[in-house]
Amino acid sequence: MERGLRYVIVAGVWLAMCGVSVAAPLPDVGTEDSTGGIRIEHSEVSCVVAEQHPCFEARLEPIEEVRGARVYFSPEGGRHWYSVAMERRDGTFVGIIPKPKHELKGLDYYIEAAGEGIQVGRTADFSPVVESGVGACKGGRVAAALGSAIVTVAVPAAPPGAGATVLAGFSTEGVTLVTGTAAVGGGSAAGAAAAATTGASAGSSGMSTAVIVGGVAGAGAVAGVVALAAGGEDEPENADVSGRWTGTAHGTMTLPGVAEVCEWDWGIEMDLQQSGVPISADPVFTLLASAGPRFPSGTGPFGHSDPCDLDYIGRSGVLRARGSVSGTSISFEVTNPDPDATLRLAFTGTVQQSQMSGTYSGSHAPGADDSGTWSLRRP
User: Fold this and answer.
1) Residue 176 has pLDDT above 90, yes or no
2) Which has the closest alpha carbon to 45: 95, 79, 87, 84?
3) Domain annotation covers residue 321
4) pLDDT digits (tens, 9 = 90+) for 347-379
5) Residue at 114 is within a domain
6) Residue 193 is part of a domain; what is its CATH number?
7) Under DSSP, is residue 190 helix (H, G, I), strand (E, B) or coil?
8) Residue 351, φ and ψ in degrees, nearest 5
9) Between β-strands 243-254 and 369-377, what pairing exists: parallel, antiparallel or unpaired?
10) pTM for the whole thing?
11) How far is CA 180 from the centre of its chain?
């Protein structure tokens, strides 16, 4: 297995983890505010995975003056902007949006933040593509994602007689839509007021006290802002996943250039450490079974005669897992700590007391695509 893990890569792709601070500083993309507004440091997301809740992360400075932040998003070429509040997590702010549907080819987003005196910070507009899996993303930064989440989305009110507002291009699973009596104009001024009136201080754990109606696109437009109570309900307590977990994963990999598939079964053992939202572990993966083709020496995909690791059944390797828990949803990335390897597998799932399970996706090599299911139990 050790040799097999060494060539598992996602070429040029860096996968963020939802709500977990990264070691390297986020590059500053600047803001569109020139009057001393909140400074937003955010790494552009270039790809999101369909049918997963994308997470957008930013650092806001000066953090002690931040009074609210929101992610504004729209389907590619859409007429309306929707928005979600961002929550502070370990020095960063995280916003989770609804799941993009498979038929959506791309989306647009930006981040706005407000502070004392309604100082406004705003990023540029970004336009990530929507792909079926991490392996399909062709370079750049892939948004971290959750398999399930509870999301309150602010949408513009529909004109009289036009019926209810539709969340175009996105799934409504786990989503509550909040509308007002007037649409909010796009642009930094309206967005600033929206962020400022969330009523959440920089030290708060959430921004659920109020929701501001998202705006219709229109650079620099200023319109009335409608604030609506969001019920004031506390978010569900994060599941406790600390301790030892054991289980299995089953998956397949499509080999590039040939009409062949590898099929694997793995045994997994790991001791999870948890500090609120972030989780970490050094799991041991053991190859239990493998099926797939062999090739003449040097002629197979990736230059290997045994790309499916048929000769490595029973081998084990220590990997690295880093991720987060939100309510009963869990999301973590598995990588190889070996500096010569760049393994990236994204696991998402749901925790139910002493059990958790879900799906994973990633890529073994350029052109390959991995996917599968996993299940763990806590003794």
Assistant:
1) no
2) 95
3) yes
4) 988 998 899 999 988 876 666 778 889 999 998
5) yes
6) 2.60.40.10
7) helix
8) -100, 130
9) antiparallel
10) 0.47
11) 28
